[in-house]
Amino acid sequence: MHLEFRTPQGRREVTVRESGGVWRVSLDGRELDVAAVSVRDGIVGFALDGVQRRAHVAVRGAERHVAVDGRVLVLRLADEDRDDQAEEAADTGPHLRAQLPGKVVKLLVAAGDVVTAGQPLVILEAMKMETEVAAPRGGRVARVHVEAGRILAMGDPLLDLEPDQEPVEGE
Amino acid sequence: MHLEFRTPQGRREVTVRESGGVWRVSLDGRELDVAAVSVRDGIVGFALDGVQRRAHVAVRGAERHVAVDGRVLVLRLADEDRDDQAEEAADTGPHLRAQLPGKVVKLLVAAGDVVTAGQPLVILEAMKMETEVAAPRGGRVARVHVEAGRILAMGDPLLDLEPDQEPVEGE
Amino acid sequence: MSAPFGKILVANRGEIACRVIRTCREMGIATVAVASEADLAAPHARLADRTVHLGPPPPEASYLRQDLIVAAALATGAEAVHPGYGFLAENAAFARACAEAGLVFIGPPPDVIASMGEKTAARRLMEAAGVPVVPGATLPPPGPGGSLDAAAVRAAADAVGYPLLVKAAFGGGGKGMRLVEAGQDPVAAAEAAVREATGAFGDGTVYLERCLLRPRHVEFQIFADRHGRVVHLGERECSIQRRHQKIVEETPCPALDDGLRRRMGEAAVAAARAAGYVGAGTVEFLLAPGGEFYFLEMNTRLQVEHPVTEWVTGLDLVRAQILVAAGEPLPWSDADLVPRGHALECRLYAEDPAHGFLPSLGRLLRYREPSGPGVRVDAGVAEGDEITRHYDPMIAKLSVHAEDRAAAIARLRAALRDYVVLGIATNAAYLDAVLAHPAFAAGETHTGFLQQHLSGEAAAGDAADETAALVAAALNEAVRGTAADAARRDAPAAPAAPAIGRFRLKGLD
Amino acid sequence: MSAPFGKILVANRGEIACRVIRTCREMGIATVAVASEADLAAPHARLADRTVHLGPPPPEASYLRQDLIVAAALATGAEAVHPGYGFLAENAAFARACAEAGLVFIGPPPDVIASMGEKTAARRLMEAAGVPVVPGATLPPPGPGGSLDAAAVRAAADAVGYPLLVKAAFGGGGKGMRLVEAGQDPVAAAEAAVREATGAFGDGTVYLERCLLRPRHVEFQIFADRHGRVVHLGERECSIQRRHQKIVEETPCPALDDGLRRRMGEAAVAAARAAGYVGAGTVEFLLAPGGEFYFLEMNTRLQVEHPVTEWVTGLDLVRAQILVAAGEPLPWSDADLVPRGHALECRLYAEDPAHGFLPSLGRLLRYREPSGPGVRVDAGVAEGDEITRHYDPMIAKLSVHAEDRAAAIARLRAALRDYVVLGIATNAAYLDAVLAHPAFAAGETHTGFLQQHLSGEAAAGDAADETAALVAAALNEAVRGTAADAARRDAPAAPAAPAIGRFRLKGLD
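^ Those are the sequences you sent over. The predicted structure of the assembly is below.
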């Protein structure tokens, strides 16, 4: 079985073969030292380079949520990944979006303002806590999509951030 | 949905209807007071006659293994039940069968012996413990199917027990 | 002994409701849970003997509806109400409403809740009783719309001195709190605190308090009955706080010796006596590096972190709350109150340290708790549950007990490693980074610990070994691909592959 | 403190292997598990850092293969071997084989294992040390084929007096044991015991012992280091036995007062000193209703029921075993050894009380452990595991701690009620019937308790409420029928129906 995953490091290819109870696994063409494989109900046990590992794998669409000995990583299975790619493409646009559902408490900037990376833009209230949304990069606020009191769903646009003509470093 | 279960008490008929999140359940034609229903992954919560109950249900073939607040009952779903019926019919024959896999340690009776109910017939060893198989009823040993040292699978015949001509009470 | 009550309504949700229901059940007391629409199948709603539906998910439409909760208690025949913590636990009006309806409120008398709930009044009371308090100043109540007299705020702030904290007079749990350093604007901070306090507690009154440098947060568990006995059950060190929210708690405090513990414990008992306290409460102190300690506030409820006290004393605090509420004397002799070993707790939050600790919402695709000797989990969620934006993002408390502090840290880290939560982000790796820090191992904790040692990028903790995660995902995919769903569900599992390659002892078997 | 060993091999399976691995992990010691073919995906094999495949499922081909286990330890670089209980734990030859291979055996010296393992030699040693022993008689070793000199057996039995017990000289755990009442044939019983002992322990030597009337089984946990310190950690009452197999254990024993506890504890320490003991061990006594007590045997290993001692002392016995094996002094002061509260344990067996307690084999369709304050589960199985005929049918130990005995009983019953095991039969309902019995509540336990109070039909315990079970099964079927498998696996769960019918407070919301 040939699988392609998207990880924080990029695309990785994994090949898995089983024959007579022996599993062979390669990663990006390199054979790994994998032994003592057991898989049941999303619980995966194996030894990697001689060290026993315990993993849980859960599936949500193309996502594979993996916990290995207390650490979690979310991978994406490439051939089920089309919708997710489209979704992610939207994130690179000018829209700054709500990362969780909540209520707009206060706007700290207006259209036309020039902001620096890290500057607070909007105060949201979610789960009874106030959270500041900061600018991911410096730029100019092109448009504000929300007003105080508005209830937002996850992914709703907050404001549009454009590259500013003049650099604002040092301000 | 109409369901027929076989229980230790006999056949029971249950009807379940759901409409707008409200569940109505009747048992053998009598409407039950069931409320607060939640079902997920074989975990079933409901209130019966106003008292909240917590149940787990697991499926094995026609069997429904049910734990309700620490007590377990195995039910059979009637329409998936044909094989199980055939199997059970065999239990009423003359064969006395091994109720678990194990090894025959010692035979305490021979063909032709007359035995009383409760009399030890065979010593089996299973899970490192010796267990005596006792006669479920009085009778005559018609045939012995095993010998000491034999490894048995679950359900293998041990010996045949026939009704004896003369009652053996008091012996 | 027959049960002191026949039936108790638990006016809360999540882990604390489950915690209270368990002890009720063990005492032979029937339980009534309350649940919002979002919680009808939640663990606390399932665990009780009856569950009453309160209303829509927002707390103001459900768990804060005093009228509905009192009516539910009366309708189901409950004799007493346990408020847990948060929601209505420190609401004097609710305690009064219970009493007026003939229900026993499991907590202190309403007047005590009111006087301790108003932090400024509590400060005055403690000063009068000779308990040291942190320098501070009151502010006039905010005007309509939450506006404050800017000049008055600046004057008061300058008098108290910087750095200072703006705190909600009726608050708790870090909400409605703001730090103001020298040179920062105290007015903006005070107004933000007023907004948050109004939303969280229904009252926007705030006050100022001097912010000590590198203090420890050390609190004492106190317990009083109606027969004049007031005892303390030792301290809890709760300095590891993120945005004034405790995330790791322990007992004993590494900084206390027997003498200081005795003096602080006596002050805590004096504070409880001065307040006319009844039931379980917590007296919070700030402990300066030099050993001076100051009354901070008194929490008139069971504390989130009470399990560490239960671990080292072997006592059940909820059981004692119920007995005391029924008018019985405290069930413990002085010899019962000697702590033993070391206990640690950490709070597991549905939040994402890699993205500014934003709350992480969604379904718990996988949720498996650790277990083992000396390990306790207090959880209010189960696999498949949805974490919504309506409630506090704390999904569970993990606590351990061991012979000494080093063994307790090792045990907590091992248990965290066994904790499996998939589908939402949690702070588990961040908690592990705290526990793994040399300064934590050395017991050098103070309320600025996280800012000093674990701010910025390091906060995320290590990610999983990517190679191991890829192998696990691929092996799981291979088995998913070859076994039909139905077959895997009903038939024996796909057999575990018996390959042990390099570990097989060649020539021996 | 650096870890006393770098790596330990755990020569066992199931819950005790998991128990030992957990403490190793917390001490920073790497672990090697061993597993038969049937156990390659078992919890203990997964929990370790490495797992060595021993061979086919039967113990004689895997867990009893001393040669393979020693070779596995050497091949993986382990410095010490922890034997758990059962299998090779009390096998002097194995302890010697470890020492000869340069491995530290975590247990007493081989000679002590040998002298205490031969029950008749142990009796003589204790008599010489002034520890009271039960009247009894040795028998000559059996001839080839397990035959005994019938006349000699009868004469010895008559001299000891009836009722008497035939016991395996190298036995333990109730195996190779037979009761002979007055008028019964001691020869048949002795020969059956010889057969079982030969199979279980590889040696068929048996001896006779007077059977006291209604004795309690009270044992003391002792601990000795290599520096001459011998202490006891209090008693465990283990009288609730079915066929000489303990199923419920507790501490403190309801029948001991301080004076008797002190005298028995001193006798236990004297016994350990007489044996030249090192490490963790148990001195078992029979306690007659009048308060006389008799040495029964000494178990040279960690006991199945050690969690109750850990609960009331707050200590980690495995940790101390490892430290002592490394030559360190016992890590406890005398003040650490004072027990507190009450602890109870029950053993969950895969057996069917409704069918003569026959072992119940098959797959664990559902396995969910209880949790909560004061609840501990030591398990060696997980959901989906297969219970096979090869190993002991004990699948888990459930233990609790509470402030007093009544609270502990209530806590254990509540936890048992939360324990979900489907797919095989267990003794859970039977255990609950024991705990619910008025004579148990009164502390009137003795080794004949189950025969007296819970034999026959009552043994099965109550079945589930059939109506509730039918409702649950039908609701589950309705949801199964309407949701496709795949959809349920990957998508949000079928929403919980929000109907609360009779509990909705009409007119209020």
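Chain D has a mean pLDDT of 90. The interface with chain A takes residues 40-41, 45-51, 382-384, 489-490 of chain D (CB under 8 Å).

Shout if you want it in another format.
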